[in-house]
Amino acid sequence: MNCRLGCGACCIAPSITSPIPGMPDGKPAGVRCIQLNENNLCLIFGQTNRPEVCSAFLATEDVCGQSNEEAMWLITTLESQTGN
Is the terminal CB of the chain with fewer CB neighbours within 10 Å at N or C? Predict the structure, then answer.
């Protein structure tokens, strides 16, 4: 499965504990990453300063579902079950 361009659920729903340019302490769950542009595209995609956790993310149907809304729901649910 390929990411749906403009979805951004994986950059909003989960917490990210590693530093992100502009967010040195990472980000809490549900907070929009500062590196998302107005079209929900990552400004640092493919760059070396992108967090490893972001680079390692693979879109799969069980995480991303069939729509952007379903992806947000699924990732939020996973975060609430596994987050701190």
Answer: C
SS3 content of the chain, % helix, strand, coil (to 5): 30, 5, 60
Q: Which residues contact 39 (CB under 8 A, 6 or more apart)?
A: 5, 6
Q: In this predicted model, what pLDDT tens digit does every residue of 5-57 receive, in sequence order?
A: 999 999 999 999 999 999 999 999 999 999 999 999 999 999 999 999 999 99
The C-alpha atoms of residue 12 and residue 75 are separated, in whole angstroms, by 9
**Residues 32, 34: Cα–Cα separation, whole Å:** 6
pTM of the predicted model as reported, rounded to 2 decimal places: 0.91
Phi, psi at 26, each rounded to 5°: 80, -155
